Protein backbone atom coordinates (compact mmCIF):
# COMPACT_ATOMS: atom_id res chain seq x y z
CA UNK A 1 0.00 0.00 0.00
CA UNK A 2 1.32 3.42 -0.93
CA UNK A 3 2.39 5.47 2.07
CA UNK A 4 0.49 8.69 2.70
CA UNK A 5 2.71 11.72 1.97
CA UNK A 6 4.01 13.42 5.10
CA UNK A 7 2.54 16.79 4.16
CA UNK A 8 -0.89 15.14 3.87
CA UNK A 9 -0.49 13.62 7.36
CA UNK A 10 0.43 17.02 8.80
CA UNK A 11 -2.45 18.74 6.98
CA UNK A 12 -4.90 16.08 8.21
CA UNK A 13 -3.84 16.61 11.82
CA UNK A 14 -3.99 20.41 11.66
CA UNK A 15 -7.38 20.15 9.95
CA UNK A 16 -8.62 17.93 12.76
CA UNK A 17 -7.40 20.42 15.37
CA UNK A 18 -9.32 23.17 13.57
CA UNK A 19 -12.46 21.03 13.40
CA UNK A 20 -12.15 20.31 17.13
CA UNK A 21 -11.69 24.04 17.81
CA UNK A 22 -8.25 23.52 19.34
CA UNK A 23 -7.21 26.14 16.83
CA UNK A 24 -10.00 28.72 16.95
CA UNK A 25 -11.23 31.26 14.41
CA UNK A 26 -8.74 34.10 13.79
CA UNK A 27 -6.07 32.35 15.87
CA UNK A 28 -2.55 32.49 14.47
CA UNK A 29 -1.02 29.06 13.88
CA UNK A 30 2.49 28.27 15.19
CA UNK A 31 5.33 29.31 12.90
CA UNK A 32 6.50 26.85 10.25
CA UNK A 33 9.69 26.02 12.16
CA UNK A 34 7.69 25.25 15.30
CA UNK A 35 5.30 23.01 13.36
CA UNK A 36 8.24 21.28 11.69
CA UNK A 37 9.71 20.40 15.09
CA UNK A 38 6.30 19.37 16.43
CA UNK A 39 5.68 16.91 13.57
CA UNK A 40 9.35 16.01 13.09
CA UNK A 41 9.28 16.94 9.42
CA UNK A 42 11.00 19.48 7.20
CA UNK A 43 9.84 23.06 6.85
CA UNK A 44 9.01 22.40 3.19
CA UNK A 45 6.67 19.59 4.27
CA UNK A 46 4.91 21.95 6.68
CA UNK A 47 4.61 24.60 3.97
CA UNK A 48 3.04 22.09 1.57
CA UNK A 49 0.59 21.06 4.30
CA UNK A 50 -0.38 24.67 4.95
CA UNK A 51 -0.76 25.35 1.22
CA UNK A 52 -3.24 22.48 1.08
CA UNK A 53 -5.28 23.96 3.93
CA UNK A 54 -5.17 27.41 2.32
CA UNK A 55 -6.59 25.91 -0.89
CA UNK A 56 -9.33 24.25 1.18
CA UNK A 57 -10.26 27.64 2.64
CA UNK A 58 -9.54 26.68 6.25
CA UNK A 59 -6.62 29.04 6.83
CA UNK A 60 -5.12 32.15 5.25
CA UNK A 61 -1.77 33.91 5.25
CA UNK A 62 -0.89 37.53 5.90
CA UNK A 63 2.55 38.48 4.62
CA UNK A 64 4.84 39.41 7.49
CA UNK A 65 2.29 38.40 10.11
CA UNK A 66 1.62 34.68 9.89
CA UNK A 67 -1.00 32.04 9.13
CA UNK A 68 -4.47 32.26 10.66
CA UNK A 69 -7.60 30.13 10.98
CA UNK A 70 -10.26 31.56 8.71
CA UNK A 71 -13.37 33.14 10.25
CA UNK A 72 -15.78 30.82 8.46
CA UNK A 73 -15.89 27.64 10.53
CA UNK A 74 -15.38 24.60 8.25
CA UNK A 75 -18.71 23.11 9.29
CA UNK A 76 -20.70 26.26 8.67
CA UNK A 77 -23.25 26.19 5.88
CA UNK A 78 -23.08 29.53 4.05
CA UNK A 79 -25.95 31.39 2.49
CA UNK A 80 -25.05 32.05 -1.12
CA UNK A 81 -25.60 35.52 -2.51
CA UNK A 82 -24.69 37.26 -5.75
CA UNK A 83 -23.08 40.19 -3.95
CA UNK A 84 -21.43 41.20 -0.70
CA UNK A 85 -23.53 44.37 -0.66
CA UNK A 86 -25.85 44.90 2.27
CA UNK A 87 -28.05 47.16 0.11
CA UNK A 88 -29.42 46.96 -3.40
CA UNK A 89 -27.92 50.01 -5.07
CA UNK A 90 -30.60 49.95 -7.71
CA UNK A 91 -33.00 50.85 -4.91
CA UNK A 92 -30.79 53.10 -2.76
CA UNK A 93 -28.04 55.67 -3.29
CA UNK A 94 -24.90 56.59 -1.35
CA UNK A 95 -23.70 60.07 -0.41
CA UNK A 96 -20.04 60.38 0.57
CA UNK A 97 -19.47 62.17 3.89
CA UNK A 98 -15.78 61.50 4.47
CA UNK A 99 -12.88 59.95 2.61
CA UNK A 100 -9.35 59.67 4.00
CA UNK A 101 -6.24 57.50 3.98
CA UNK A 102 -4.71 57.24 7.44
CA UNK A 103 -3.41 54.91 10.11
CA UNK A 104 -6.61 53.56 11.69
CA UNK A 105 -7.28 53.18 15.40
CA UNK A 106 -6.19 50.00 17.15
CA UNK A 107 -9.63 48.33 17.06
CA UNK A 108 -9.72 48.61 13.25
CA UNK A 109 -6.11 47.41 12.96
CA UNK A 110 -7.10 44.31 14.94
CA UNK A 111 -10.22 43.63 12.87
CA UNK A 112 -8.31 43.96 9.59
CA UNK A 113 -5.24 42.11 10.91
CA UNK A 114 -3.05 44.99 9.77
CA UNK A 115 0.30 46.18 10.99
CA UNK A 116 -0.11 49.28 13.21
CA UNK A 117 2.15 51.07 10.72
CA UNK A 118 -0.07 50.35 7.70
CA UNK A 119 -2.53 52.81 6.20
CA UNK A 120 -6.20 52.19 5.47
CA UNK A 121 -8.98 53.90 3.58
CA UNK A 122 -11.50 55.37 6.02
CA UNK A 123 -14.85 56.05 4.40
CA UNK A 124 -18.12 57.36 5.80
CA UNK A 125 -21.27 57.59 3.70
CA UNK A 126 -25.02 58.00 3.95
CA UNK A 127 -27.33 55.41 2.45
CA UNK A 128 -30.51 57.03 1.14
CA UNK A 129 -33.82 55.78 -0.15
CA UNK A 130 -36.33 58.19 -1.64
CA UNK A 131 -34.19 61.10 -0.34
CA UNK A 132 -34.45 59.77 3.22
CA UNK A 133 -31.34 58.73 5.15
CA UNK A 134 -31.83 55.10 6.17
CA UNK A 135 -28.28 54.26 7.25
CA UNK A 136 -24.82 55.56 8.05
CA UNK A 137 -21.95 53.36 6.92
CA UNK A 138 -18.27 53.34 7.93
CA UNK A 139 -15.86 51.36 5.76
CA UNK A 140 -12.19 50.54 6.33
CA UNK A 141 -9.92 48.86 3.74
CA UNK A 142 -6.15 48.26 3.88
CA UNK A 143 -4.49 50.56 1.35
CA UNK A 144 -1.87 47.97 0.39
CA UNK A 145 -4.62 45.58 -0.74
CA UNK A 146 -7.14 48.05 -2.19
CA UNK A 147 -5.09 50.34 -4.39
CA UNK A 148 -6.27 53.24 -6.49
CA UNK A 149 -9.85 53.51 -5.25
CA UNK A 150 -11.66 56.56 -6.62
CA UNK A 151 -14.15 58.74 -4.75
CA UNK A 152 -16.74 58.38 -7.53
CA UNK A 153 -16.84 54.62 -6.87
CA UNK A 154 -18.05 55.23 -3.31
CA UNK A 155 -21.42 56.49 -4.51
CA UNK A 156 -22.56 52.97 -5.38
CA UNK A 157 -21.44 49.37 -4.89
CA UNK A 158 -17.72 49.21 -4.16
CA UNK A 159 -17.47 45.50 -4.92
CA UNK A 160 -18.12 45.89 -8.64
CA UNK A 161 -15.11 48.23 -8.81
CA UNK A 162 -12.93 45.82 -6.83
CA UNK A 163 -13.71 42.98 -9.22
CA UNK A 164 -13.94 44.74 -12.57
CA UNK A 165 -11.26 47.44 -12.17
CA UNK A 166 -8.82 45.99 -9.63
CA UNK A 167 -9.27 42.37 -10.69
CA UNK A 168 -9.70 41.10 -7.12
CA UNK A 169 -11.38 37.74 -6.52
CA UNK A 170 -13.95 38.23 -3.77
CA UNK A 171 -14.65 35.21 -1.62
CA UNK A 172 -16.81 35.53 1.48
CA UNK A 173 -18.04 37.74 4.28
CA UNK A 174 -19.04 37.30 7.90
CA UNK A 175 -21.73 39.56 9.38
CA UNK A 176 -22.47 40.31 13.03
CA UNK A 177 -25.84 41.89 13.81
CA UNK A 178 -26.74 43.84 16.96
CA UNK A 179 -29.04 46.66 18.02
CA UNK A 180 -28.73 49.94 19.89
CA UNK A 181 -30.42 53.27 20.45
CA UNK A 182 -29.16 56.10 18.28
CA UNK A 183 -26.89 58.50 20.15
CA UNK A 184 -26.98 62.24 19.64
CA UNK A 185 -24.38 62.11 16.89
CA UNK A 186 -26.40 59.62 14.84
CA UNK A 187 -29.66 61.45 15.53
CA UNK A 188 -28.10 64.53 13.96
CA UNK A 189 -26.43 62.70 11.05
CA UNK A 190 -29.55 60.70 10.18
CA UNK A 191 -31.82 63.73 10.75
CA UNK A 192 -34.04 61.84 13.16
CA UNK A 193 -36.72 63.63 15.15
CA UNK A 194 -35.85 61.60 18.26
CA UNK A 195 -33.62 58.77 19.43
CA UNK A 196 -34.78 55.50 17.90
CA UNK A 197 -33.69 51.88 17.65
CA UNK A 198 -30.98 51.12 15.11
CA UNK A 199 -29.66 47.85 13.75
CA UNK A 200 -25.87 47.69 13.57
CA UNK A 201 -24.39 45.30 11.00
CA UNK A 202 -20.64 44.66 11.13
CA UNK A 203 -19.12 42.89 8.15
CA UNK A 204 -15.65 41.55 7.47
CA UNK A 205 -15.06 40.60 3.85
CA UNK A 206 -12.45 38.22 2.46
CA UNK A 207 -10.77 37.54 -0.86
CA UNK A 208 -10.83 33.99 -2.22
CA UNK A 209 -7.34 33.41 -0.81
CA UNK A 210 -8.65 34.15 2.69
CA UNK A 211 -7.14 37.64 3.00
CA UNK A 212 -9.44 40.08 4.79
CA UNK A 213 -9.87 43.23 2.71
CA UNK A 214 -12.64 45.17 4.43
CA UNK A 215 -14.37 45.97 7.69
CA UNK A 216 -17.72 47.75 7.49
CA UNK A 217 -19.99 48.97 10.26
CA UNK A 218 -23.48 50.10 9.22
CA UNK A 219 -26.11 51.69 11.45
CA UNK A 220 -29.56 51.19 9.91
CA UNK A 221 -32.96 52.47 10.96
CA UNK A 222 -34.72 49.36 12.23
CA UNK A 223 -37.76 49.93 10.04
CA UNK A 224 -35.49 49.69 6.99
CA UNK A 225 -33.58 46.57 8.00
CA UNK A 226 -33.56 43.32 6.01
CA UNK A 227 -31.68 40.32 7.42
CA UNK A 228 -28.70 38.93 5.49
CA UNK A 229 -26.38 36.19 6.71
CA UNK A 230 -22.90 34.76 6.07
CA UNK A 231 -22.07 35.01 2.38
CA UNK A 232 -19.90 32.90 0.13
CA UNK A 233 -19.29 33.61 -3.56
CA UNK A 234 -17.04 30.60 -4.19
From TrEMBL:
Organism: Latilactobacillus fuchuensis
Ranges annotated as spanning the membrane: none
Pfam families found in the cross-reference section: GntR, UTRA
Keywords per UniProt: DNA-binding, Transcription, Transcription regulation
Domain HTH gntR-type: 4-72
CDD domains named among the record's database cross-references: WHTH_GntR
Gene Ontology biological process terms in this record: negative regulation of DNA-templated transcription
GO molecular function, one term: DNA-binding transcription factor activity
Protein's recorded name: Transcriptional regulator
InterPro entries in alphabetical order: Bact_HTH_transcr_reg, Chorismate_lyase_/UTRA_dom_sf, Tscrpt_reg_HTH_GntR, UTRA, WH-like_DNA-bd_sf, WH_DNA-bd_sf
Amino acid sequence: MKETPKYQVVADHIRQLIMEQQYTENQRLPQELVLAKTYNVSRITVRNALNLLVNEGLIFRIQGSGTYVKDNHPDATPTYKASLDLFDFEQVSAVLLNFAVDKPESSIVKRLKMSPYDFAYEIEREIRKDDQIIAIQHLYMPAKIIQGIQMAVLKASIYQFLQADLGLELGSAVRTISSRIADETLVKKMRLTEKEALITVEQRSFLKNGQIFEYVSTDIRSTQFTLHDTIDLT
